[in-house]
Specification:
By secondary structure, the protein is mostly helical. It has 4 helices and no strands.
Length: about 80
């Protein structure tokens, strides 16, 4: 993905790369990734005996799996 942005920047200037970055950020499932990662970290914390941390990470996974209620900020 980074190489595409650099390639785009070389061909069409910084403005085109910025708009492409924003479009890609909207399509990238960040919340899905955060939910999955927090779930994995919760399992690791529980395996290590840290139930409190596991519960907090599961709460984070739950929040990340819900639809986002605010607009996403533009990437710079």
């Amino acid at each position: 993905m980074r190489s595409q942005l650099h390639h785009q920047d070389d061909n069409h200037g910084a403005g085109a790369a910025t708009s492409q970055s924003r479009a890609q950020a909207q399509d990238y499932p960040v919340r899905d990734y955060v939910a999955a990662m927090a779930g994995e970290l919760a399992r690791m914390a529980r395996w290590d005996g840290d139930e409190r941390l596991a519960c907090l990470l599961e709460a984070a996974a739950d929040v990340a799996s819900r639809p986002c209620s605010t607009d996403k900020p533009a990437l710079e």
